[in-house]
Write a structure and sequence with these properties.
By secondary structure, the chain is α+β, with helices and mostly antiparallel strands. About 50% of the residues lie in helices and about 15% in strands. It contains 15 helices and 7 strands. The strands form 3 sheets. Strands 1-2-3 form a 3-stranded antiparallel sheet, with helices on one face. The protein has a two-stranded antiparallel sheet with strand order 4-5. A two-stranded antiparallel ribbon has the order 6-7. α3 runs antiparallel to α4 and α8 packs across α11.
Length: about 400
């Protein structure tokens, strides 16, 4: 088996990694050697003699060559087909024996341990997502007869697993979350020696755009001033309006106490990001907080599922029911979602409205992020959702040629 050593970044001015490539059954396999060298210290096949520590570096390259030849020889001797996956596993075991999992625990047992240890320090929704990941991988293993153990999580697994999710018509946004959670699990297990593959770091995350229903200030005001003649409905209305006027998530609203706010500010510890935020209180938000503690002595926040279900009914009652058509993606497939606008609404839309309306009113982006707690624009922009009418009006106002005033003689 021919081994080709080459520089990862041959034009770099600094040290760069030496990689190697081999051909197995017509497919090229590329891996890092872990050895670094400056391009001017590289001969094309080995480190030049005058380069610092050249002898040790060349010994490492020779050892890698020896390991590759040994793997090939073993499989030829036993008359077994050497596949890319088998080579990677064998190579990792030989090159990093200290990372080899010796207790042979199953995927199911290891992820159970992971979930157990993460539960005290993670949100309820995060733990629920990890349990869903476990359930889905076990279903994938059963349905596709794809044996999953702690050494299975390579690039081939990633391809098969994502194709499985696409077959199930999972949207790219959902697949993206599965892959992120899987990478978090694999990073945790790698550090603890439960597997020795680093392929998971190269797992592709499907990109996606999030389509949202546009909520205008007029719609929110109509909802805010509507009396639904029902205590539960009015309570859910107020919880949503509070989110619209503060940008808070559902979970953080549910944790507000009487001591967290005064006439001007709401000072709150945010559960998801574990930071303290100071939120200026608009009169509408202050009124809702006062009413909650006056009537209930606490924040009376129904379960999230109940809020989302009834919120759809509230928007239906104020006739926010125009048909909305979104095109979602599952892999390369288009999935058309067409239904009344109120069916898309959840409590989290309040946070999106707060951000979008603040921008619409001319508020500085950095000041908005100071309130919402967003650290970067990438996560912030997901909540920005301008209406097409506003975009058009802004375009016309800037592109319309203004006439010069006539001079009266």
């Amino acid at each position: 088996m021919n081994v080709n050593f080459y520089l990862k970044e041959p034009k770099s001015k600094d040290e760069t990694l030496i990689h190697f490539s081999i051909i197995i059954n017509g497919s090229r396999v590329k891996r890092s050697t872990g050895v670094k060298v400056k391009p001017n210290q590289w001969s094309g096949t080995k480190v030049k003699p005058l380069a610092p520590n050249s002898e040790n570096k060349n010994l490492k390259l020779e050892n890698i060559q020896h390991i590759i030849n040994e793997i090939e020889r073993d499989y030829l001797r036993d008359r077994k087909d050497l596949t890319i996956d088998l080579f990677r596993n064998e190579f990792d075991k030989k090159i990093n024996p200290e990372h080899t999992n010796t207790d042979n625990r199953s995927f199911s047992n290891v992820i159970d341990e992971f979930i157990k240890l993460k539960t005290p320090i993670s949100s309820e929704n995060t733990i629920k997502a990890y349990n869903t990941l476990k359930k889905t991988i076990l279903e994938f293993e059963k349905e596709k007869k794809y044996s999953v153990d702690m050494q299975s999580f390579n690039l081939v697994f990633n391809d098969y697993f994502q194709n499985y999710l696409i077959e199930k018509e999972f949207l790219n946004s959902t697949i993206n979350k599965y892959c992120k959670n899987l990478k978090a699990f694999l990073n945790w297990t790698y550090k603890r020696g439960y597997h020795n593959t680093t392929d998971y770091k190269q797992f592709d995350l499907p990109s996606y755009e999030t389509d949202k229903v546009v909520l205008t200030a007029e719609v929110i005001e109509k909802l805010r001033t509507q009396d639904f003649k029902n205590e539960l409905k009015n309570c859910i209305r107020d919880i949503f309006i509070l989110s619209c006027y503060t940008g808070l998530r559902y979970i953080d609203i549910s944790l507000i106490t009487k001591n967290d706010y005064d006439d001007k500010f709401l000072n709150l510890h945010i559960k998801k990001t574990r930071e303290n935020l100071t939120i200026p209180l608009l009169p509408q938000a202050k009124a809702i907080l006062d009413a909650q503690f006056e009537h209930f002595g606490k924040m009376n926040v129904p379960p999230n599922q109940t809020c989302n279900r009834i919120l759809k009914d509230l928007f239906e009652e104020i006739e926010f029911t125009h048909t909305v058509k979104f095109t979602k993606h599952s892999g390369g497939n288009n999935i058309i979602l067409e239904q009344p606008a109120n069916k898309f609404i959840t409590v989290h839309y309040g946070r999106s409205f707060f951000i979008t309306n603040s921008l619409t009113l001319g508020m500085n982006e950095e000041l908005i992020r100071k309130i919402t707690g967003h650290k970067d624009y990438k996560s912030f922009k997901k909540y920005v959702n301008f209406s097409k009418e506003m975009v058009a009006e802004n375009l016309h106002s800037h592109w319309t040629v203004k006439k010069e005033p006539e001079i009266v003689k």
